[in-house]
Amino acid sequence: MASWFQQLFLILTALTVLPVQAQQDSSNNDGTVVIKPIQIIEPDITLRKTSQAKIDDEVFEAGVFAGVISIEDFGTQPLYGVKASFHATEDFFLQANYGVSKAGRTSYETINGNGVNILTDGDREFRYYDLLVGYNLFPGEAFITRNLTLNTAFYLVAGAGNTRFAGDDHFTLVIGSGYRVILSDWLTWNLDYRDHIFKTELLGREKNSHNIELTTGLTVFF
Amino acid sequence: MPVFILLFFSLWLLPAQADNSHVPAVSEEAAAQALQATVIDPYLELHTGPGRGYPVIYVVEKGATIGIVSRRTSWYLVVDKQGNSGWVKRENLARTLVDTGVPVVLPETRHSDFLQHRVRLGFTLGWQESAEQVAAMAGFRLSRHIGIEAEIGQLFSATTNGQQYSASLILEPTDRWAVTPFVSLGYGRQELELKSKLPGNRPLEDNFRSIGAGVNWYIGFNFVLRGEYRTLDIFSDNQTVSNDLWRLGFSSFF
Question: What residue range is the signal peptide (chain A) (predicted)?
Fold first, then answer.
């Protein structure tokens, strides 16, 4: 490599310098510009690669949420969960959620007293996961006080997942919206609304059950 | 419930920033470690947020040095010599030079440059005959035109629930367009469980082979929307059953 390069360098230098020298000798008298020999610099490929690597990417967001979910026919119950998002572009993000709740008693069960149970205790577990696409519809700023402004975004989400309820898996469509307030360079606060829609036959007829979730949570950017 | 209330009210106890700038304050240490670059355009505009519409808060003049601290999607947090920080769009930051005199190296805007040896993560939603299918997918690009993808999914039908695992080879003949066709060849396994818990109902475990075609639409520089059709040949005990699978996918690579 080096010897080959040296040879090339010498040849090129000879080719460039000699004519210039000859030119200088012949043309210095009539005031022409002196051309310096061309410098050959070996390109440093590795340096170009490191530029991007030195910049810290912050496109993942993960955190916890808590709130309430209204499970159709089974009352409104506390809900807890974890979420992770990947911000693909400034407009779009992908999000995965996992949430856990426990259904209450239906009015039918309550009216008929303690002896009547549609579900066993274990089957009242309500667990879901979903995979969503999000779109930052209205990015903006919120003016909290005169001296405090925070970046915010109102976003829409849609996707699907699985709800495990009443001892069965249900294919679930999820639509919703949310509001994100960026508290600092690494911490965000979210307020989320979601509707989990799945088919159920628990109470006789098959129907689409709508399960409305309202949660709030904190996530960190990394 | 008490946890929820506590969490809600704890938000008001968060330390508020002292000044009215809500751009992340960059510590001197971070600024010193940041990649240094020189502005070559007449000026560089620093915005208050990493997104469309955020106002310009500072302007850095030509010839001044900035430190590039972090990236959030296609925006970069930069800090100038006076300690002012703000967000700069990738296209504008590309007009700066690092100390070796070459432009700052940032991901190119053409997705084909971004596809080389990149990991892809995403999910798909669709229908296999009358059953709904949802799957999480991880992919890796072996070369410009060939990728491998592994997926794990769930099937939901009126009578059965089940899991699917499969691996596919994805062949994409071109990477020059924003919308590119592809073909897929795959092999996998599905395990179906009958919903009715009658005695003698055993889970059905079958292998399948798939062949399919679809379209990838590259949005932005690393977000992909996919529409796809596959035909699955499922090898059950004594016969081969053919299933149609139609689905929509969302993925991103980095």
Answer: 1-22
Interface of A with B in 117-176 (CB under 8 A): 131, 133, 136, 139-141, 144-151, 153, 159-162, 168-171
Smallest CA–CA distance from A80 into chain B, residue: B4
Given pLDDT bands bounded at 50, 70 and 90, which one contains residue B244? very high
Taking the CA of residue A139 and the nearest CA in chain B, the distance in Å comes to: 7
pTM of the model: 0.76
Q: What number of CA atoms fall less than 13 Å from residue B82's CA on the CB side?
A: 7
Question: B109 CB contacts (<8 Å, ≥6 apart)?
Answer: B90, B91, B221
Pick the residue of B52, B118, B123, B218 with the most A CBs within 10 A to test the interface with A by mutation: B123
Task: Judge whether A28 and A38 are in contact, CB under 8 Å.
Answer: no
Query: What is the enclosing helix (H) or strand (E) of B217?
Result: strand B204-219
Element (H, E) at A81: strand A76-87
In one-letter notation, the amino acid at residue B182 is F
Angle at A89 between CA A222 and CA B15, to 5 degrees: 40
> What does the alpha-carbon distance between residue B252 and residue A221 come to, in Å, rounded to a whole number?
17
pLDDT, greater one: A96 or A89: A96
A94 neighbors A131 (Cβ within 8 angstroms):
yes
Q: pLDDT confidence of B5, banded at 50, 70, 90?
A: low
List the Cα angle B34/B39/B45 in 5-degree steps. 90
CB contact under 8 A, A90 and B52: yes
A52:B107 CB<8 A: yes
Measure the CA dihedral B229/B235/B238/B244, to 10°: -10
Average pLDDT of the residues of chain B: 82
CA distances from B76 to A88, A149, B71, B91 (A): 14, 20, 4, 10
Of B3, B51, B106, Cβ closest to residue A136: B51
In Å, how far is A193's CA from the nearest CA of chain B? Answer: 15
- CA dist B221 and A90 (Å) reads 11
**What pLDDT score does A26 carry?**
46
Q: Compare CB distances from A90 to B51, B69, B252 and report the shortest one's residue.
A: B51
Q: Is the CB of B223 less than 8 angstroms away from the CB of A88?
A: yes
Q: What is the pLDDT of residues A161-212, one digit of tens each?
A: 999 998 888 999 999 999 999 988 889 999 999 999 999 888 778 899 999 9
- Put simply, the chain A residues between 81 and 100 with a CB less than 8 A from any chain B CB are 86-92, 94
